[in-house]
Amino acid sequence: MSASAKRLLEDPLTRGRDLDDPQTTELRRQVMRDKPFLRQLYGEWYATIVNALPPGRGPVLELGSGAGFLDQLLPDLITSDLLPVRGLSLALDARSLPFGRGSLRAVVMTDVLHHLPGCRRFFHEAARCVRAGGRIVMVEPWVTPWSRLVYGRLHHEPFLPESVDWEFPSSGPLSGANGALPWIVFFRDRALFEREFPEWTIRSIRPTMPFRYLLSGGISMRSLVPDWTYKIARGLEAVLGPLNGHLAMFAVIVLERAGGPR
């Protein structure tokens, strides 16, 4: 995408803002409020996350809460971000969690894992803090022929399925990324993940959402369609569901901590 086209499509509220500035995250809350199409999309993701939580009671930690609103569906949610953002419970590094052993029912996140350099440290920390039978539930970018085209040409974050390892340069807490990391860890290198982290079972991976996020403009771009088209777009994606292995841009990934009831 040319620089002029990108500037034209950028949301004017956050255009030119430093992604690693906490004030940018606060402005993105307004973007979320002002874009009903995007808000409905996140609402579906959040409902999926809630439905994937393990039964029982206990604290649930959300990483990278940022401009989201999952706490409206889970009132006792522990919200957090790497940056000190107003209105969140904690500022923390996912690679060093301030929780006791087995104290969490689950860790959840939306578009966070692919921003974590040194993600191995996170998996170890989560294994320490999440109780037996607890879960990690995440919505993350996924690699398909369609998503390679979209993320590779239209998205500002690096998308490198060919990366030989799980690391990437950390240019900043939000600007550093490899959008292909979840696919690398849980699909391409799945056997390696299972050897290194026997505490975690990959319970499910569900590729999803080929077009709606792109049409919404996401959190940084203008919407490409009117808000009233949301149900039409959702219906089209339902029809195309059997092709999600080729078209999906995201995946819902659920990991379960070993030792829980079967």
List its salient traits.
alpha/beta; 262 residues; 10 helices; Rossmann fold; 7-stranded mixed sheet
Description:
Helix 6 packs across helix 7. With 262 residues, the protein is an alpha/beta fold. It has a seven-stranded mixed beta sheet with strand order 3-2-1-4-5-7-6, with helices on both faces. The model has no long low-confidence stretch (mean pLDDT 89). It contains ten helices and seven strands. Helices cover 35% and strands 18% of the residues. The radius of gyration is 18 Å and the shape is globular. The protein has a single domain (3-257), classed as Rossmann fold, CATH 3.40.50.
SSE topology:
Elements: H1 3-9, H2 22-34, H3 36-51, E1 60-63, E2 78-81, E3 90-91, E4 104-110, H4 119-129, E5 130-141, H5 145-154, H6 181-188, H7 190-196, E6 200-208, H8 212-216, H9 230-239, H10 244-247, E7 250-257
Parallel strand pairs: 1-2, 1-4, 2-3, 4-5
Antiparallel strand pairs: 5-7, 6-7
Helix pairs in contact: 6-7
Going by CATH, the homologous superfamily would be Vaccinia Virus protein VP39
Number of discrete domains: 1
- The CATH architecture classification is 3-Layer(aba) Sandwich
Q: How would you name the oligomeric state of the polypeptide chains in this document?
A: single chain
- Overall geometry: globular
